[in-house]
Specification:
Blueprint lengths: L21 H27 L4 H6 L1 H19 L15 H10 L2 H13 L5 E8 L4 E8 L8 E7 L6 H4 L3 H11 L2 H13 L1
Antiparallel strand pairs: 1-2, 1-3
Length: about 200
């Protein structure tokens, strides 16, 4: 099995300014995400080199944490786009229709999403996901680096302090408000369309 690698960003480190600073993006991508990738590869290698069940069980938390960190961040980078790009605008289409249907309006959705995400204790993620059983969009949160596995991820927001503290300090609501200016709704639309067809 080939080792996992850090994915390239689909934009420059300064492309999300002024909403997310270049300094945050450099640290978040090249340091934090790279650490998850490095530690995931090390855990996979250690797991493959032992037949001791106790040792393999002991590695489960490292696999879950670092694997989740890699999955979540790989989604997160694609979840954003420069504010002045067409991708950062929610346009008429099936995703907007579903948001209006399931939450009343886009503004109501943002309020509910922000409230749920701000309720994360410590570190974690806020999500808009698609429930393939009920055919509805749902808001969810996950702790730490746990990936969203009960729903198909459409939009994910990192609420770990490393994602915002250098710029927004402890004012999480300002970070969440800023995020909606750089949310890649075109990518969210693609994910939604794929989830509906699945």
């Amino acid at each position: 099995m080939a080792p996992y690698t850090l994915p390239d960003l689909p934009y420059a480190y300064d492309a999300l300014e002024p909403y997310i600073s270049k300094e945050i993006m450099i640290l978040h991508h090249s340091k934090h995400h790279q650490t998850y990738v490095t530690n995931l590869n090390a855990a996979i290698q250690a797991f493959s080199q032992t037949n001791d069940i106790k040792a393999q069980i002991a590695l489960q938390s490292a696999l879950k944490f670092n694997g989740g960190g890699h999955i979540n961040h790989s989604l997160f980078w694609k979840n954003m786009a420069p504010a002045d790009s067409a991708d950062a605008k929610l346009t008429e289409g099936s995703l907007k229709t579903a948001i209006d249907k399931d939450f009343g309006s886009f503004e109501e959705f943002k309020k509910k999403f922000n409230t749920a995400t701000l309720g994360v204790q410590g570190s974690g993620w806020g999500w808009l996901g698609y429930n393939t059983a009920t055919k509805h969009l749902e808001i969810a949160t996950t702790a730490n680096q746990d990936p969203l596995i009960t729903l198909t991820p459409i939009i994910g927001l990192d609420i770990w302090e490393h994602a915002f503290y250098l710029q927004y300090k402890n004012v999480k609501p300002d970070y969440l408000a800023a995020f909606w200016n750089v949310c890649n709704f075109a990518e969210a639309q693609r994910r939604f369309d794929a989830a509906v067809k699945a």
